[in-house]
Amino acid sequence: MSAGTRKAAQAALAAEHAAVYGYGVVGGRVGEGRRAEATAAHHAHRARRDALARTVRGLGGVPVAAQAAYALPFAVPDPAAAVRLAAVLEDRVAGVYSDLVRAAEGPLRREAADALREAAVRSVRWRGGGVAFPGLAERASEGTGAKAGAAAKADSAAKSGAGGTNGSGGTH
Q1: What pLDDT digit, counting tens, does each position of 83-125 carry?
Q2: What is the phi-psi region of residue 64: left when phi exceeds 0, alpha when psi lies from -120 to 50, beta otherwise?
Q3: Is 151 exposed, middle or buried (0-12, 13-18, 19+ CB in 10 A)?
Q4: 28, 55, 102, 134: least CB-packed within 10 angstroms?
Q5: How far is CA 79 from CA 89, 107, 167, 172, in A?
Q6: Residues 6+ apart with CB under 8 A from 35
Q7: Angle between helices 3-29 and 35-58 (to 10 degrees)
C-alpha cells in the first residue's frame, strides 16, 4: 500500500491513543447512568487501537506510540463536560477515519468505514444529534474557506433542527 495509506493509518492510530486517554477522563467524570456507555466506548477504542497497531506494522511502518498525556480541548469538571468531551473525541476519531477511508483500499477501507460509522453512532448517542456526513464537517471549513464551512454547518443545523449548537453552547 502507499505511503499515504500508512500515514492515514498512523493518524488513526494516534487518534485512537488520544481517545483511549480521553475516555479515562470521561469515565472518571461521567454520571453513573452513562458510565457503562463510557466503559464500552473505552474498550472499543482500545480494540481499534490494537488492531491499527497491527495494521501499521503490516503496512511496513512502526506504530506511533501513545503520549504520556494528552491536552484536553476544555476543562472537564463535571458530568456534563464529560459527555461533551466524549462527543468531541468521537468526532475527532471520525475525522481521521474518513481520511483513512479515502486513502485505503480493500479490507482496510472497509474496516476504516466501519470505525467511522461506529464513532459517528457514539457521537450521536453522546451529543443527542448528528451531522449529515460524519468525519467531514470540519473538513468543509478547512478546505474551502470559512464562509463555505459556516454555510455547510448552518445548513446542516437547519436541516437537523439543531440550531447550530451541540446543546452545550459549542458549535458543531
Answers
A1: 999 999 999 999 999 999 999 999 999 999 999 999 999 999 9
A2: beta
A3: middle
A4: 28
A5: 15, 38, 14, 20
A6: 27
A7: 160
